[in-house]
Design brief:
Blueprint: H1 3-14, H2 45-70, H3 79-108, H4 114-127, H5 132-155, H6 157-162, H7 165-180, H8 184-191, H9 196-224, H10 231-242, H11 247-252, H12 271-282, H13 295-300
Helix pairs in contact: 1-3, 2-3, 2-4, 2-5, 2-9, 2-10, 3-7, 3-8, 4-9, 5-7, 5-9, 7-12
Bound molecules: fe (ii) ion (2 copies).
Length: 301
């Protein structure tokens, strides 16, 4: 064994996610009992239930992401990418844990968060019939979507100003970390030689297997809440999310770039945004310093 090899293995043992800018932050959020039922987006049921659906699908979705990347971990020699993968896995696992807690809060309020969970698991089971390699490609597609969703979470003032500030905390933390690790799954895919044709197939697979269960569960939630016939509010909610300048519309506009020749997640330039939010959430007077449990451990790492 050469000295260079020994040195590289020692580095790979030493580097942690925190050292490569992807620290898995343990958080402990509290959810205020006094929060409005439709705490997101201007007290609008349809728009707020979209976020309940998202929270319902995150834990199973993120477990799928983690598994699809973990399977290729042994094929990575680069110590930095290895550490980024460790950071990615740690961050996604903790997102799932905190969303599980938020989903318990929803359940206690009789908000049917189990339907999106069940529906999305059905979609994920269909993806799991494909090769591990194709599952990783699907993860890169969904991470691309999540990264742009995260950018909206952090920059869309109309959304931020109308949401319950206490409830926003979890989403701000999650969004920042999505941006911090947005390139990891894709970099793993590049190491194993992912192709443009595979990316096109992944888009079709997500549209076919994932989109219908998500939309259907949103409809079920609306029905369970007795809001399906609330035409005025539903029209307003659709405008907030899918209007010309709607929250989801702004995310969807960035989806085609995923299929461009030479695409890389770093095309989405978010460094300044990440710096601003790291300071705002975890800086000297950070908004989330009280909830941040493992700052000292990460600093030691
Ligand atoms: Fe996440
Ligand atoms: Fe992610």
């Amino acid at each position: 064994m050469s000295v260079a090899q020994t040195g590289s293995q020692a580095t790979s043992r030493l580097l942690s996610g925190a050292q490569v800018g992807i620290p898995p932050r343990h958080m402990n959020f509290r959810f205020p009992e006094a929060a409005d039922r439709y705490f997101f987006f201007d007290n609008n049921p349809l728009a707020s239930l979209f976020f309940v659906v998202l929270s319902g699908i995150f834990p199973p979705g993120e477990r799928f992401f983690v598994e699809s990347v973990r399977r290729f971990r042994d094929r990575i020699d680069d110590p930095v990418l290895k550490a980024q993968v460790a950071g990615f896995i740690g961050q996604e696992a903790l997102h799932g844990r905190e969303h599980d807690r938020l989903n318990d809060f929803f359940r206690a309020r009789q908000l049917d968060v189990d339907t999106p969970d069940r529906f999305v698991k059905f979609g994920l089971r269909q993806l799991e019939r494909f090769s591990p390699r194709m599952q990783l490609v699907c993860t890169t597609m969904m991470e691309h979507f999540t990264a742009h969703l995260a950018e909206q979470w952090l920059t869309n003032d109309e959304f931020r100003n109308s949401a319950d500030p206490e409830m926003l905390k979890l989403w701000s933390w999650h969004a920042l970390e999505e941006l911090e690790h947005k390139a990891v799954a894709y970099d793993v895919l590049e190491r194993i030689g992912g192709t443009a044709a595979e990316r096109r197939l992944a888009v079709a697979m997500i549209a076919f297997f994932m989109l219908p269960p998500i939309v259907a569960s949103w409809g079920v939630l609306l029905a369970r809440e007795g809001q399906l016939a609330n035409r005025r509010e539903n029209a307003r909610g659709l405008r907030l999310l899918l209007g010309r300048e709607g929250f989801v519309t702004k995310v969807l506009r960035h989806m085609p770039v995923y299929l461009k020749q030479g695409f890389h997640p770093s095309w989405q330039q978010t460094q300044a945004l990440e710096d601003t939010w790291r300071e705002r959430l975890f800086g000297e007077y950070g908004e989330l310093n009280e909830e941040f449990r493992n700052r000292a451990a990460l600093a030691c790492a």
